[in-house]
Design goal:
By secondary structure, the chain is of the alpha+beta class. The mean pLDDT is 92. It has one domain: Aspartate Aminotransferase, domain 1 (Alpha-Beta Complex). The protein is built from three helices and five strands, in the order H-H-E-E-E-E-E-H.
Length: 130
Amino acid sequence: MEDGTRAYNDALSQSDWAICDLLAEEIERSLPKAENKVWHAHPVWFLDGNPIVGYSKQKPGVRLMFWSGADFDEGALNVPPKKFKDASIFYNDVSEIDTKALKRWLRKSKDIQWDYKNIMKRKGRLERLK
């Protein structure tokens, strides 16, 4: 885990720390080739410079977000009605995390990717990578 991510987690309440620590461990285990850094003030993992998964503390809880999750076809992930392809889920207790589902989503995050890395070059238009 990158130092910025560790510092982010350590600044949280005990219950939020437990959620984020488990998420980080599972992400690191499932995406060993991903680069982890704090990006836009929260931990994000990238494959080849493309954001894949990240989490942040928000009012409703800890939000786990997959940048290309709208195409995972997973009912537990909330897909907002907008032009991007993200999907997310909120957690308020570590016991809410279904690690089997999380591992499945992380596998899908490698196989289903939209090109967020070049979104500015394409003036907001996304293209499918995988």
